[in-house]
Design brief:
Length: 41
């Protein structure tokens, strides 16, 4: 959740109701946005 807060400026309350699978998907998007690699699509 800290990754999402840092990259997307979301508060914990914004993420509290999200299921784990959705949080994981958003975390991957945050990773790609914050530290893209040449192998990311």
């Amino acid at each position: 959740m800290a990754d999402l807060a840092l990259v997307f400026h979301w508060r914990p309350a914004d993420m509290a109701a999200m299921p784990v699978g959705e949080l994981m998907a958003w975390r991957e998007r945050a990773r790609k946005r914050y530290a893209p690699s040449k192998h990311d699509d």
